[in-house]
Every structure is written in C-alpha cells, then in structure tokens.
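Justification of resources, computational component.

The compute hours requested in this renewal are based largely on the per-chain cost of generating structure records like the one below. Each record pairs the submitted sequence with a full structure-token output. That output is archived, and it is also reused by downstream analysis tasks.
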Amino acid sequence: MMRLDPRFAWVRQLAAFAALLAVWEAAGRAGMLNPLYAPSPSRVAAALVDLFSDGRIWPHLEATFSAALGGLALGILVGILLGVVAALVPLIAELLEPVMTVLNAIPRVILAPLFAIWLGIGLASKVALSFILVAVLIFFTVFSGIRQVDRKLVERIITLGGDRWALVRHVYLPSVAAWVLGNLKVAVGFAFTGAVVGEFVAASRGLGYLLSFAQSTYNSALMLALVLLIMVVVLAIFAIAGRLEKHLLRWK
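The structure output for this chain reads:
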C-alpha cells in the first residue's frame, strides 16, 4: 500500500480543490449547469471582486465583526463566571443548571426573531444572540470541567492548609483556562453563527443582511461569494485562535 507523506497533505488538498473548481467551471461553460442555481466559479469570483471593488462590503464586515466579537467576549466572561460559581456553590448549580440545560436543548438560533422584537434590528440583538450561543457553551465547559478536576489534587491542597481561594487560584483557574481555550474555536464559530443568523432575520447591514438580500433577489453568485467570504473569515480567526491556544497552553 502506498504511503503518503503527511508534509504534503496540503498540496494534495489544494490540487483536489483546484480540480473540483476546474470541473465545475467546465460544466458551467458547457451549459450543463443552470447559472440561476449553480453559477460557475468565475461568476462567484466576479461577485466577490465586485463587493470589494466599490467598498460596500466594509460596513457590512464591520457590523458582523462587531456583533460576533462583542457576543464572544461577553459570552466567555459570563460563561466562565457562572460556570465557576455553579460548580463551587451547590445552590447556584441547582438553580442555574436546569436553565442552561433548557437553553442548550432548544435551537438557540430561534431566539433571533425574539431578540429582534425586544432589542430592535440594530447591533444589540445580534450581540445578544451571539452571547447566548457562546455563554451556554462556555458555562457547560467550565461547569463540567471543574467537577472533573482530580479529587486527589484538591485533597492535597486542603491537606496543606489551602482554603477555597487557594483551590480556585492554583487548581480551578489554570484548568478553566485550558478548557476555555480548548473550546475557543467552537465559541468563535458560535459567535459568528449568532451574528449572521441575527442579521439574516432582521438587520439593515451585515453579512447576514447581504445574504438575505441575495436570497430575495435570487442572486446565487452573490450568495456563494458571501458564504465563501464568511468561511475565509472564520477560518482565519480559527488559525489565530489555534496559535493563541498553543502559546497560552505551553505550560501543559
């Protein structure tokens, strides 16, 4: 069986992707695909270039980034705080865990219309949806993680005279940092999902708003261009988050 050099995996992946694009383009030019539903890659690229050439994409990128990063920051902060408190205080866990379980059970994107009614079609409703998506994820990450801390390590700290603050500082906080950073990529994806879905439901600008506009005008080339743009943006943030995770978790 032929062994493949893992160092050149990216070359093979790019070659396969280029071949797929070539076949797709050839099928489009041959009239085998309906351009209304499946535009060729060249038409998608032209739509993407058009977005940037006249500069109209920048306010929409700013709106989506503001909502996603705002919801991400608030969700991580509140999720960590609630997760730590619930894990250390049984009464808080008893009250809070069922609420988070219900929020986790329902598709949280269905809250987008409610937030649009409650908070309007501006930035606040998109931040709120991103916040809910991220906060629930981080809460369960921290809550479950603290409960799974090695009990022998906890007992050792207590035996040496450590109080609850010593446990939090020397055991729980380092572990929480590892758990949160380990789920940072998922949290980023959830934050952008919340922002784009919120904009798709009700907004005056943003990538989700442009997607809704493209759908309403049956502009499939613009839709695919926007999907590609969102994928590239999220993958770039994934790469940054991955480097940050490796840098901050060197101690492991």
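The mean pLDDT is 84. Residues 85 and 97 are 11 Å apart (CA to CA).
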